[in-house]
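Milestone 3.1: sequence recovery, worked example.
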């Protein structure tokens, strides 16, 4: 197994063209929200536009633009709000966010698509190592409106570090993400632009939840257009 790092839509498209396994990382907050929903038995339909999210057949509608809830939807992209809610077991949620769902759409055609964050890095690394032991894994930091985001790069580094511990070879960019994750004080992520934006909007609890490493045992994989947990299927053939 070899692990690479890439950024944004361009990185996702490149991974899809290469037939790699793609992991989309949107730590604040889409990947965290998807992991939480999947761990609660909800399948998540990622769509890029609000119109699609409103039209698709689903039990719940989750959406945000500029970190604020879409009017008329059940939830914004707030994992703490969702964690406190009653969710329909086996239900579906249509979800559209500013960055994460757009990157997932760009990666369609990859060998497999997962979504990861700090909260499920260990579980996800184990899942990928088991199912794709001989594959190229491309970890894509989603960023914010086409710009780099330090929380996504750090969360990507967390996943890459765990893949490395399981024996993955790391390319130079992946190695830099791992080194930055291990070296950079975790408290710095409370001070970046994404955290400041969420704090202004009163989402301090979301930041705290998003930074809880290995706290959610979920490895959401896109199957049939929905992120789901599939523990009982056999590993992919080599």
């Amino acid at each position: 197994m070899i692990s690479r790092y890439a950024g944004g839509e361009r990185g996702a498209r490149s991974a899809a063209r290469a037939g790699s396994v793609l992991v989309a990382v949107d730590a604040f907050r889409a990947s965290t929200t998807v992991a939480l929903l999947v761990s609660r038995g909800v399948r998540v339909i990622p769509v890029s536009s609000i119109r699609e999210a409103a039209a698709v057949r689903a039990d719940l509608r989750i959406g945000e633009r500029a970190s604020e809830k879409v009017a008329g939807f059940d939830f914004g992209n707030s994992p703490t709000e969702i964690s406190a809610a009653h969710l329909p077991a086996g239900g579906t949620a249509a979800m559209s966010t500013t960055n994460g769902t757009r990157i997932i759409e760009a990666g369609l055609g990859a060998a497999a698509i997962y979504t990861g964050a700090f909260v499920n890095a260990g579980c996800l690394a184990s899942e990928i190592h088991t199912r794709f032991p001989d594959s190229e894994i491309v970890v894509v930091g989603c960023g914010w409106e086409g710009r780099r985001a330090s929380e996504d790069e750090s969360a990507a580094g967390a996943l890459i570090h765990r893949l490395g511990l399981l024996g993955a070879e790391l390319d130079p960019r992946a190695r830099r993400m791992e080194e930055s994750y291990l070296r950079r004080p975790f408290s710095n992520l409370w001070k970046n632009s994404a955290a400041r934006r969420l704090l202004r909007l009163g989402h301090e609890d979301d930041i705290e939840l998003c930074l809880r490493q290995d706290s959610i045992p979920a490895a959401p994989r896109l199957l049939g257009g929905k992120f789901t947990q599939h523990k009982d299927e056999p590993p992919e053939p080599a």
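The radius of gyration is 16 Å. Residues 142 and 166 are 24 Å apart (CA to CA).
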